[in-house]
Amino acid sequence: MILSNSKRSAQLSDKVAASLAKQIINFQVRFATWLNSWFNTYSIRQKKQITIAIGLLTAIILISSSFCSFYTIPKLSQNYTSAHIGQASEFPDPQFIKRQLTDSLTKKSKP
How many domains does the chain have? Predict the structure, then answer.
């Protein structure tokens, strides 16, 4: 992320990004080492049971989330009008209730 066009700012941004990346990688290595040592304390049979239990739990969560949503998307109202891309060629009439979605390409010229 470059904060401005100056070379000094770019160097500072690079240093901050490198430091942050190093901290993230170090955390990942420590967590992976801890997880590996925790998992290796169990026997082969226990490892299989843990792996199957985690797989089943993940499958249950994924399947249940497809049937019932944890986050509901609000429904659009009936008076929704689509967004207009581009700049309108003229201002809408103040007495006009609905928005005028016209531009120079869709507006018909009067002869």
Answer: 1
